[in-house]
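User: Round two. Same drill as before: sequence, then structure, for each protein.

Assistant: Same drill it is. First protein:
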Amino acid sequence: MRGRRAVILGLGGTAGAVAFMLGLGAWRARNRPAANAVLPLPIGEMGWQLTDHRGRTVRPADWLGRPAMVFFGFTWCPDVCPTTLSAISGWLEELGTEADRLIVALISVDPERDTPEVLADYVGNFDPRIVGLTGPKAQIARAADDFRVIYRKVPRDDGDYTMDHTAGVFLFHADGRFANIVDFHEDRRFAVPKIRRTLS
C-alpha cells in the first residue's frame, strides 16, 4: 500500500478525469442554488446505512446536530478524488478549530474495492477529520440517490475498471438542510467562506 500511497499523493496535483457534474456541479452561485438545480434531500430525510473506515455503522440521523461536508469518490481515483481531498484538508486547516464542528465524509462509489480497511489507509493520507464511508452496493446506490449523485462503472482496455462520478463537495447545515456546494477546483477564496456560512 505504501507504493500506492505515493502514487495517490503524486497524482493529487493533476486533474483531467471525466466526472459527472450535475446541475449542481457547474453551479457557481455564492449563496443559493440555481433555479433548475436538483438538490440533495435534507439529511433527516435520507435513508442510507453505511460503514465508516473504523468499522462503525453510520446513519443519516447520526449527523443531525452538526454541519456536514460530503464528497463522493473512490480510492483508486487517479486525480479528481485526491485533488479534492487535498483541497478539503487545506480548507479544514484554514478553518482551524472551527472545523472540529464539521462532519467531513468521503462516500465511496466503488464498494467492490473500497473496504473499511482500504478506506482507512486512503483517508490516512489526508486530514484526520475526514471519515471514509462504504457499504453494500444497494446502500451506496441509496446514498447516491439521496444526495442526487450520479456514478457509473467504466471498463478499461486492460480489463480493470474506473468510476465516473459527480464531482463536488456538498455542504449541509446542522439541522440537515442543504446549504451549498463547493465545485471541483473552486478557489479557496470562495470555498472557505461557503463553509463558514454553513457553520454559522
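Second protein:
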Amino acid sequence: MMLIKRIDHIQLAAPVGSEDTARSFYRDVLSLEEVEKPESLKKNGGVWFSNGSVHIHIGVEQPFVPAKKAHPAFEVDDLEALASHIRNKGISVTTDDQLPGANRFYVSDPFGNRLEFLEWLEK
C-alpha cells in the first residue's frame, strides 16, 4: 500500500522575470530564506525559499494566471504579530472567521496568488 509521508514543497506560479519581486515578498516580507536551486534547474527560472520544514518554490510560466482560490495554508505561532508586520509593509490582510477553532487571514502575493495564514486556538 502506498503511503504519502508529507508535503515536500509547495510550488506557486509567477510571471517570467519576476524573481526579484518574489524575493521582495517571500524573503523580505515573510522572512523566508532563499535556497539555491540545483544547477540543472536554474535555466527554468524561478526562485526557492525555505523556513525549516516549509519549502516554497516560485516557478515562472507564460502565460501566467494566479491561483485566486487554490492556496497553501501556513500555520503560525503569533497570527496577530504576523498580520501587523504584513500590514506595516503596506500589504492588505483579509481576516476570516469562518473556520471553527482557528483565527486566520488571507494575503495575495505580488502575483495575485492567495496565501492563508492561520493559528489554531487549541491543539
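The beta strands are 10-14, 33-35, 47-51, 54-60, 73-75, 94-96, 102-108, 114-120.

User: Perfect.
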